[in-house]
Structure prediction request, 181 residues.
Amino acid sequence: IILLTVFAYFFYSDYEKNQKVQISEQYSLAIIKYNKNNPNPSIYEMKNIINYKDPTYSPLALYFLLDNNLLSSKSEVNQYFDILINDVNLDKEVMNLIIFKKGLYNSDSASEEELLKIFYPLINSENLWKSHALYIMAEYFFSKNEMLKSKEFFEKILKTENSNPQIKLEAQKRLQRDFSV
Prediction:
């Protein structure tokens, strides 16, 4: 039984390494073969890579599709974001970055409720992306002329202990300029 367990462990470990190599090669080939005039093969490959739920290559595949404007359906893009957030075993800060990117991607079309729901994990915990999410929400409310809510979010940035210094400075400027604080 011990020998069988050791053998199974090494077999599984080798299998995982081979899977990672295959996904890596598939990703590299899709990028190399990418053609702006006929992007469909690369789109297909990148979608497959996202669905492998690999912590390295699935996010890269989604970013490739987004950076090259290869997906036209917001709901499809959000489904891929949800796969990364919910189904891929990611480092916590990488997952927070993906949540932030999802919120940023949706910030021009989402409702207040949808945007707050997306940013909720960032706004309600201490992480690198908290001040970024607060700033997006403050600007969102400012653009909707909801000044009280906007001011609250700008003030939260100033109160957040580990706020990004540049975002903190921008929030201070905005409060002084537009809210006379």
